[in-house]
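Before drawing any conclusions, I needed to go through one protein's amino acid sequence and its C-alpha cells, quoted below without any editing.
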Amino acid sequence: MKATHGPKIDYRRCNGCGVCYNMCPQDVYGWDKDRDQPSISYPGECWHCGICEIDCPEKAIDVQLALQAKLFLGIDP
C-alpha cells in the first residue's frame, strides 16, 4: 500500500543539494545515484516535523499530513 502522507518532492524544482536527505531525523529519504537527487524511501516513517520542507532552498518539498493529523488539527481532509 502506498503512503498518502509524508514528503513529496517536486523534481522540477529540486536541485539535488541533499539538504532533505541530510537533515531528516527519520531517514525517510534515500539517494538516487543515477539522477543525483533524493528519493522518498520510507514515507510512512515521516514524523511530519517539516525540517525538510523548511530547509529546502528550492521549496521543492511538500510534507503532506496523515488523515489522523488533519482531523486532530481540525483541517478539512
